[in-house]
Task: structure prediction
Amino acid sequence: MLGQRFIFGPFVLNPDNGTLLRQGELVAVGQKSILLLEALLRRPGEVLTKSELLDAGWSGIVVEESNLSVQIASLRKQLGPSPSGGEWIATIPRVGYRFVGTVDAAKPATGSASTVAPREISRRELSIAVLPFANLGDDPEQEYFAHGLTEDIITGLSRLRWLLVTASDSSFTYKVSGADAKQVGRELGVGYVLKGSVRRSGQRVRIIAQLIDALAGSQVWAERYDSDLVDFFALQDQITESVVASIEPHLYAAEGFRSRRKTPGSLDAWGLVMRAMPYIWTWASSDNETALAYLKRATEIDPGYARANSLIAWAYAARLHIGWASVSESLDLALRFARLAVEQDGEDPWAHLALGWVHSNSRRFRPAVEELDAALQLNPNFAFAHAMLGMAYGYAGHADEGLRHLSLALRLSPRDPQQARYLSTTGICHFVAKRFSVAVGFLRRSVQLRPHFLAAWKTLAAAAGLSGDREVAISALAEAKRLQPDLSIDWIEKYHPIVHEKDRAMYIEGLRAAGLE
Result:
């Protein structure tokens, strides 16, 4: 159910945006843990079999049962003890697991039990200090590896033009001080602190990175990187790219959450954009309207705000994917605002991303690729631009190139909040390559992450129709028609972004097999 949240003890799980909060602060859990926890919370007190949970966490993929036990163990560690002192999740030997706590299911509402005291935000909070990574190895000569990695991460983060990054001269003063994140935040005037460690053993190296909210002292994100030390500099570049690309979506998510705490009337243009961003990525029509309202207010305050205009373009183009009636008008508006954003700030990769996405949705393949390439020239670590380039290639029938860019996106940002979009696009690539059963697996995972993602439901119906899985095809089409009552063969022919007529004909054949007229 769209907007449903699950409240238990000090926790709030929001399946729509894939977040778990403890007393208003983000808990760093993976997407698999989110899916498993949601399944358990939907049926509190009931025993869920191992097969049911494996299907919830790994829909369409065959994995060993040990994967489930590892995820449950990790989830228990993050949740900690229940108020009674026991586990939140009980093991039922040889059968499965059961959630033993009390669960309240609720839609978002002002003054709900999960509401926390608002905290003032400012543009200054969107700033970061990278502390020197600690060398945990036995060889003191490896200190230069940790030092060089820290410098590279600072340089990489500095390319994010919306983020203020403290110079290394200042952050390196904390190398031996042992100051905690809150103290660093106060003394350097930053909202976030990135710290980590490096351990080399023979030809293996392990890097651990943690992003910490310096005001609350809580962890926002953490990641571990293990690799062979075959090519020192290539490995250093890879880790730097991964850290930089992974941090960006989590910073936006954290800032968006903060902005939702503040009274809308007191937000400036930047704050309104932060407030809008969580609503942009849900692929729900009501959220699309909410996002546009915030973004238009931002441009009323600052008409030259390129980022706001690029997101307005994105929101209008997204209406194609949520079954909006006035598709042609929405795409025309999207093109106008995207071009305006590029004119206002041609150095902003988001402006080129938005324009490229609008072109792709309008079946203009070459200009789409040109704009998305431009976004990557400006920010080579822009995982989302790689994903959208993969989508453009997929819609144009170039499956292998599309999958290559999607692989790059997932390597750069393995826990990206837009994973449902990535999975859906992967499904499109396999679909145009006529790997229909493979496409079904990815698309089922996409709609599980975003149950109201209309574009994924349509492609799932088409892929299942052509793979011979009539039951899934009929079910997927029913959900697609619930989300878009006017869905028809004529609509697909006119508006679906698939570029080539032969590929659209194949898509339509699959939808006909599912029962679309």
Summary: Residues 5-106 form a domain with the Arc Repressor Mutant, subunit A fold (CATH 1.10.10.10). The mean pLDDT is 81. The two ends are 27 Å apart (CA to CA). The chain has 21 helices and 14 strands.
